[in-house]
Backbone:
């Protein structure tokens, strides 16, 4: 179900397919286009009409180059036009492969030990552990068991199919990684002596982003809000210490902030501002994790 504002605002739908909603604009004419209508350009994506105009305006040298490299280029363009959530599939493949390796006796424990996150890895002066800050992100690719992996990958598959076509591949990947980083930072701040693995922070960030983007498009997001609340309360109340609600909270908050930046910097002329704001958010997370946890560990 959608709200009247959603259905009445045609800017929320593909101009060639009025029944398909999208969050992606053609970088030339700035009209909304669905995944099927998107063709990858040097910067962003363009619609079929702008693509045809580009082809007509190509020089003889450009046409010769296109014929010469048509095999690989044609495949790339076909993939771009298909609108498939390739980033979602890539994340699923990499995370599932690592998760299955973790199930192998003897090998799994070593992989988990190399990828898990714990705050002491950030502060070698306060702990005997080495300085390994990359664990802030590697932890989102490891899981604590088959059920943990399966549930997160199911959520990634379901959410990614909706979010990636709306946001675009680069923005979607940035959302996933920054949300996962936010979850690890929240664990470092609120539970610095615990170790965590799992993509839950990134998943909660995706849920928050879908909520924010949905509201921006005018969609009815009540059902998603209820599901989000149930998942968070379950982790907080019934997790029994096995579920890191801190990672859920961090991913949720940071994912919402990333989505808010996206909806407020949607236009092409705001791209530089979008990059600056996302970079500032990442720097802020690094500053927080560098300053706050040592105070807790020293207390």
Residues:
């Amino acid at each position: 179900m959608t709200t009247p504002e959603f259905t009445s605002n045609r800017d929320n739908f593909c101009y060639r397919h009025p029944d398909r909603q999208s969050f992606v604009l053609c970088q030339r004419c700035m009209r909304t286009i669905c995944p099927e209508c998107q063709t990858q350009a040097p910067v962003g994506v363009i619609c079929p009409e702008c693509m045809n105009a580009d082809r007509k305006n190509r020089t003889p040298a450009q046409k010769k180059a296109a014929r010469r490299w048509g095999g690989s280029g044609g495949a790339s363009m076909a993939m771009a036009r298909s609108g498939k959530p390739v980033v979602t599939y890539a994340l699923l493949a990499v995370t599932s492969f690592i998760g299955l390796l973790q199930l192998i006796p003897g090998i799994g424990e070593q992989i988990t030990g190399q990828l898990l996150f714990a705050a002491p890895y950030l502060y070698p002066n306060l702990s005997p552990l080495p300085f390994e800050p990359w664990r802030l992100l590697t932890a989102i690719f490891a899981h604590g068991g088959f059920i943990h992996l399966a549930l997160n990958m199911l959520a990634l598959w379901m959410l990614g199919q909706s979010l990636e076509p709306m946001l675009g591949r680069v923005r979607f990947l940035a959302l996933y990684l920054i949300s996962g980083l936010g979850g690890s930072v929240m664990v470092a701040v609120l539970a610095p002596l615990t170790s965590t693995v799992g993509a839950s922070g990134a998943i909660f960030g995706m849920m928050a982003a879908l909520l924010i983007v949905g509201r921006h498009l005018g969609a009815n997001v009540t059902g998603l809000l209820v599901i989000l609340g149930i998942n968070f309360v379950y982790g907080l109340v019934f997790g029994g210490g096995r579920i890191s609600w801190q990672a859920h909270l961090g991913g949720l908050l940071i994912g919402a902030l990333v989505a808010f930046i996206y909806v407020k910097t949607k236009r092409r002329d705001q791209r530089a501002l979008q990059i600056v704001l996302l970079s500032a958010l990442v720097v802020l997370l690094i500053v927080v994790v560098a300053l706050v946890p040592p105070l807790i560990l020293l207390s």
User: Anything to note?
Assistant: The chain has two domains: 4-82, 86-298. Strands lie at 39-40, 45-46, 117-118, 195-196. Residues 123 and 294 are 7 Å apart (CA to CA).
